[in-house]
Design brief:
alpha+beta; disordered C terminus; 41% helix; 368 residues; 13-stranded mixed β-sheet; three-stranded mixed β-sheet; elongated
């Protein structure tokens, strides 16, 4: 409620619409109604009319005259001074009216001060309540995955090696979830009065009701949003005026290093949503990126004997539930030798057959 509207209501200068607005607001809580009554009492107490002031001073003067008659007639100079005081007190527009006006000013000052204090208390109370909202931290370790039902009816799937924060329940006029790192898929319950916001460290995604994924792993230096259905807005957290809108089967990227946004349509959404159904799908993906996803999903550590192997490209659908099945596919598809060094630690190297073939090709003389 606007403080100026409250002040106009208290002083009787508000419009009928403002009066109804204040009345409706005062009924929203007992504290609101009590505060309005207190402010009105302060104003009424200070609003003494000139006639009321005149009557009170007349009564005081009569009491003084009675005391004078009882104690004896005063000297001429004392009497004249008293008359001068008496006449000055009742002079039209004189002290009597000034006193009344000053009381109204004082009342107005008190009303303004009290209303300012009241609104400060309200905002402070709201801030305290906001701070008191219990926040939950959910961390998925490598090799873990989870599904959750949120307090508003929305669903969320959390991928491995992910960290989110969210309140136990959404109490305000908006819903906020914080993706500290990792990947999630959300199916948002539609609520036009409470938009849903997903915050990463570098971006903010705003939705009303839709289903989409958000990926923000630190080493990838980008935030990626892929929409399954609905409409999503992706913006930089540094400048929310710069944003892009994404629709079904569209992918948006926010590039952290240069603060740029891009969007494109995707032909195969399984590349981005397969992880929820227990498999990974790649299309010409560099091996170094494939390795990161495998390490998260299976909680293993993969090292390359030759760093240049990371640039090899993989197109495959890895549906094996055991890491061994997946490694067999990789070995065949990329012509790799794979060695288990120790528990949860694996070495990728070029196939020995490939190495021998390359060596022979180099050794053979050019007979051209």
């Amino acid at each position: 409620m606007d403080q100026l509207t409250i002040l106009r209501y208290i002083t009787g200068e508000c419009t009928p619409e403002e009066r109804r607005e204040v009345y409706d607001w005062s009924r929203t809580s007992a504290d609101h109604a009590k505060s309005i009554r207190q402010l009105k009492d302060i104003w009424d107490a200070g609003s003494v009319s000139t006639d009321e002031m005149q009557f009170q001073v007349d009564e005081d003067w009569r009491r003084l005259e009675n005391r004078i008659d009882t104690s004896g007639r005063p000297g001429r100079e004392e009497y004249v001074d008293s008359q001068r005081f008496h006449m000055h007190a009742y002079k039209p527009g004189g002290t009597g009216r000034s006193i009344s006006m000053w009381m109204k000013v004082a009342a107005a000052f008190l009303v303004v001060s009290m209303s300012a204090l009241f609104f400060w208390q309200l905002s402070h109370q709201a801030q305290q309540e906001e701070e008191m909202v219990s926040m939950r931290e959910i961390i998925m370790e490598r090799g873990q995955q989870s599904n959750m039902l949120l307090s508003d009816g929305s669903h969320i799937t959390i991928n491995a090696d992910s960290h989110i924060r969210l309140p136990d329940r959404f109490e305000s006029d908006r819903r906020d979830l914080y993706l500290e790192s990792g990947e999630i898929f959300v199916d948002i319950e539609s609520d036009p009065d409470r938009p849903f916001f997903i915050h990463t460290k570098e971006s903010v995604i705003r939705v009303l009701g839709t289903a989409f994924s958000v990926r923000s792993y630190p080493e990838e230096r980008e935030v990626r949003v892929v929409v399954r259905e609905g409409i999503v807005s992706l913006a930089s957290s540094q400048n929310s005026s710069r944003h892009i809108s994404l629709i079904e089967n569209q992918m948006g990227r926010y590039y952290i290093d240069n603060n740029q946004l891009s969007s494109e349509f995707v032909q195969d959404t399984e590349l981005f949503f397969g992880w929820m159904d227990g498999y990974l799908k790649f299309d010409e993906a560099p091996l170094e990126r494939v390795i990161r996803d495998l390490e998260r999903r299976y909680n293993v550590r993969i090292v390359l004997e030759d760093p240049s192997l990371g640039s090899k490209r993989l197109t495959a659908e890895l549906k094996g539930r055991s890491i061994q099945n997946v490694l067999n596919v990789l070995s065949s598809a990329l012509d790799l030798d794979i060695e288990q060094l120790e528990e949860n630690r694996i070495m990728f190297r070029n196939s020995r057959n490939t190495q021998v073939s390359e060596h022979l090709t180099t050794a053979l003389p050019d007979r051209g």
